[in-house]
Specification:
Layout (H helix, E strand, L loop, with lengths): L1 H37 L3 E2 L3 E8 L4 E6 L5 E5 L6 E6 L5 E8 L2 E7 L2 E6 L4 E6 L4 E7 L2 E7 L2 E6 L5 E7 L4 E9 L5 E3 L5 E5 L4 E4 L7 E4 L5 E7 L2 E6 L5 E7 L4 E8 L2 E8 L2 E6 L4 E7 L6
Antiparallel strand pairs: 1-22, 2-25, 3-4, 4-5, 5-6, 7-8, 8-9, 9-10, 11-12, 12-13, 13-14, 15-16, 16-17, 17-18, 19-20, 20-21, 21-22, 23-24, 24-25
Length: about 300
């Protein structure tokens, strides 16, 4: 009898140990995912970050026009996307509805230009009086205006394009084809035109008549670009541990924010004050630079 009980206990122990091991692995994984989800955004030395506005599902595009009006796009699909004006007190005024994944916005004259990251959808120009269709593209995400030229990229795997739309001639020209998920495009003060290829993890400078120059490699899903006299600002569209980076004029990469969830558009309010759309947490972050921040 003693022998039988010993064997029975050993059998139970052999069953319990693997179960405990599996339970421990599951617990560790749950704790890891919870850490990724709830760990707060971290700012670099000399910077501070806070929540500007929250409860904005699918927040994607931000725009501040010459009059100081702040516009926000919500990237819902199938005609449910909207652009609204966000008032200083937090109130919202819908200005464009019926959109499909409205992604980025730029100011033009007394209105705004809106892209739609949806198959064969138009780029629109809106003002208080009307909404005009300018041209149609396939999953157009990033747009940037340089004088009378609007540059746009199509977020398509392998067959994405870099487009140039002449606002005066109403003509679309294809600058590059066969790009792998280009999402961001920016024009710098010196006239340089840059674009991302998300799948490649790099950013290129457009070079007419020659091969484009890769200016930075090894990024994780680079999406939005903004360029100013400090350099090229880059957000990474990752679900966890995404970053906001600055490729400065000296060619060094600074991590300005880390532990983000799917950051999108960044805009400048003034030289030391920025807003960033963090889609993964349904909010807009406020980023401020302090005197001791590295430049």
């Amino acid at each position: 009898m003693l022998t039988m009980k010993t064997k029975s206990n050993r059998t139970k122990l052999c069953l319990v140990v693997p179960c405990l091991a599996v339970a421990l692995i599951i617990l560790v994984l749950l704790l890891f995912f919870a850490w990724q989800h709830y760990y707060p955004a971290q700012s670099a030395t000399g910077w501070s970050v806070s929540i500007y506005r929250d409860n904005i599902p699918r927040v994607a595009g931000l725009l501040r026009d010459a009059r100081g009006n702040l516009y926000v796009s919500q990237e819902f699909r199938n005609g449910k996307g909207i652009v609204f004006q966000l008032m200083p007190d937090g109130a919202r005024r819908n200005i464009i509805s019926g959109l499909s994944q409205p992604s980025r916005m730029v100011s033009y004259k007394d209105g705004i230009i809106v892209s739609q990251e949806h198959p064969q959808s138009p780029v629109l120009w809106w003002n208080e009086d009307k909404t005009e269709t300018w041209f149609t593209g396939d999953h157009i995400e990033g747009i940037v205006l340089d004088g009378t030229l609007l540059f746009a990229v199509e977020d398509v795997k392998v067959k994405g394009r870099l487009l140039e739309y002449d606002l005066e001639e109403k003509e679309v020209r294809i600058l590059r084809e066969n790009l792998d998920e280009p999402e961001g495009v920016a024009v710098c003060p010196d006239g340089g035109l840059f674009f991302t290829e998300k799948k490649k993890g790099w950013i290129k400078r457009y070079t007419p008549g020659a091969d484009d120059i890769v200016v930075i490699r090894g990024l994780q899903a680079p999406t939005f670009l903004m360029c100013n006299d400090e350099g090229l600002w880059i957000s990474e569209d990752r679900t966890h541990r995404a970053r906001l980076l600055l490729l400065d004029a000296s060619g060094k990469i600074q991590t300005i924010l880390s532990h983000l969830r799917a950051p999108q558009t960044i805009i400048t309010l003034d030289r030391n004050h920025f807003l960033l759309a963090e889609q993964g947490r349904k909010r807009i972050l406020q980023l401020k630079r302090h005197p001791d921040a590295r430049r």
